Amino acid sequence: MTTPVPLGGSFQPSGTDLRFNRFGYGAIRLAGEMAYGPPADRDRARSVVRRAVKLGINHIDTSDYYGPHVANQIIREALHPYPDDLIIVTKVGARRGPDRSWPEALSRDDLVGAVHDNLRNLGVDALDVVNLRVGTPFSTNEDSIAEPLGVLAELQNQGLIKHIGLSNVSVAQVRQAQSIAPIVCVQNRYNVAFRHDDPLIDMLARLGTAYVPFHPLGGFQPLESSVLEAAAAAVGATTRQVALAWMLQRSPNILVIAGTSSLEHLEANVAASAIVLPADVVAQLDQVQPQQRLGRPPVSGGR
């Protein structure tokens, strides 16, 4: 199957010079188990990153707390100096505990330190996009984000951050953020089995803001699996490919960031960007009832 370029089409957030190929790569699996420590095979991890770019991916989603530091160091080892069109999106707002937990880190010192950690380990003078992560990996809250977002806005004014995004946020927090600084993307948990953000996606599409689902392949209940299996059989693809293709067709502002440490899985994932699901298959996937969209949180933990 010939992969189209750009992968899955492209999306340019309003008011920016960023142009994302809609099929990207999530770097969480470049680190060790549960995104902690080094990978079992560092050479293979570098090979996966290089292959992703050769396949046409120009959007890498990462964070310096993957490892910590490991994922960003591998990205730098594999790709620096970076291709001109490569967009690296990172996250701040959490850290890693020695027990592999993901406690929040939203103080001024935490955020400033995290931005400088990302700059150093990626080997850049300014970060393309920094997402402010709040809430927990599987739930949002309604806390004010004015203070931590204000810190990122200050760092943006200093030239250390080019663009700002959000992660694990509610609709109210998105609206609050828009009154403080331009927001180019929102990254929340979303997939064909967990669709709580449907209204938010549509709102962001109208605003020209990107929506980036994390855990795009996770959390399926048995019923969703059977629906995916039937859809996959109908189009001659795998269930993973159908889940990814469905998101690309869901809305033009969705950017897919499937992560893997396997070259084989990377190739298969990217091939999903060339799959066009027939209307009847999409309708089958859309028939999953809301109470069946709860999903199970992946054992690997947070974002």
Give a summary of the structure in a few sentences.
This protein is 37% helix and 14% strand.
Summary keywords:
globular, 7-stranded parallel β-sheet, alpha/beta, 303 residues, 9 strands, 10 helices
State the end-to-end CA separation: 32 Å
Average predicted confidence as pLDDT: 91
Low-confidence stretches: 219-223, 290-300
Tell me the quaternary state.
single chain
Largest sheet: 7 strands, parallel
Describe the structure.
The protein is an alpha/beta fold and 303 residues long. Helix content is 37%, strand content 14%. The protein contains 10 helices and 9 strands. The protein has a 7-stranded parallel sheet. Strand 5, helix 3 and strand 6 form a beta-alpha-beta unit. Helix 1 crosses helix 2, helix 1 packs parallel to helix 9 and helix 3 crosses helix 4. The longest helix has 15 residues. The radius of gyration is 18 Å and the shape is globular.
Topology readout:
Layout: E1 10-11, E2 20-21, E3 25-26, H1 42-54, E4 59-61, H2 70-79, E5 87-92, H3 108-122, E6 127-133, H4 146-157, E7 161-167, H5 171-178, E8 183-189, H6 198-207, E9 210-214, H7 222-235, H8 239-250, H9 263-271, H10 279-286
Parallel strand pairs: 3-4, 4-5, 5-6, 6-7, 7-8, 8-9
Antiparallel strand pairs: 1-2
Helix pairs in contact: 1-2, 1-9, 3-4, 7-8, 7-10
